[in-house]
Amino acid sequence: MSFWEYVTTPTDGHLGPVAGLVISLSLFVAAFGILLVIGPGMVSFSSRWRWVRGRKQAGPQEANLRTELRVKVGIGIIVWCLTLVVSLLLRLVGTPGLITRWLPTMVIVVLPLLGGYVVVYRLFFFPRYLEVCRRMDARKSYEPTPKKSSKKARTEAPAKQKVRLMPGKVIIVMGLLPVVYYFVTAFVSMPPDVPAQQHDHLWHQSGTLLTVPLGYLIGLVISLGDEWRPLVPLLRVQRK
Which residues of 4-18 are buried (b: 16+ CB within 10 A; e: fewer)? Predict the structure, then answer.
């Protein structure tokens, strides 16, 4: 049996023990993603400077950069796990297309692509942006600040890091991916043992809807570091 035949072979509309185990593990991993997003112990504050993982070296820009990576990866984990769970639960609908392994396979294939990009970003791009952020924080620390009353200084809350969860890249990919999926799969016969004219289109429509969160994931991951990306050439010029 070829891989394509395995993916498109009906599974009799049941989850099975493997699918049930995958759903349970996915929910567990999604809970980890939630902790990663809201974990208060990852970043704490001390006067004007931020303590990041026990180091008093992170200024506002560096803290924002680290928070962006943590929050976007955490949300990516949550969305991907829930999308996989939905793709598996659609088998219970029992229609010819949805009881195949097509939709879960589509979701699983996205994972190594996104995971690989995050690893490349963390190893090669993140250090450059980190250097830019530290230079900006160092320059900011030398700028004179207006004097504030001691009462106002005590009551002033530290600035919170802002992470854009709907940047332009997310909107573009969320709009393009469903359209591409719809027209590409419109020419695919699934499952192979059912004539094309007898196909119900519920699997097609459901797959198109599942590409919306997948498009969100892709756009969210490739938007990592967008705020600091244009500043890297300026840093190179300053070095020269």
Answer: eeebbbbeeeeeeee
CB-based contact 100:11 (threshold 8 Å)? yes
The mean pLDDT value for 187-203 works out to: 59
Does 154 have pLDDT greater than 50? no
Range of the domain at 222: 3-141+153-239
Q: Is the confidence at residue 140, as pLDDT, over 80? A: no
Q: How confident is the model over 169-182, as pLDDT tens digits?
A: 999 999 999 999 98
Written as six digits, the tokens of 154 are: 């005590």
- Is the pLDDT at 83 greater than 90? The verdict is yes
How many other CB atoms are there within 10 angstroms of residue 137's CB atom?
Answer: 19
Find all residues with CB under 8 Å of 126, minimum gap 6, and list them.
Answer: 65, 69, 225
pTM of the model: 0.82
Residue 148 lies in a domain: no
The reply to whether 30 falls in a domain is yes
62-78 burial, b at 16+ Cβ within 10 Å, e below that, comes to bbbbbbbbbbbbbbbbb
Please provide residue 193's backbone torsions phi and psi, each rounded to the nearest 5 degrees: -90, 5
| Separation CA 87–CA 23 (nearest Å) | 10
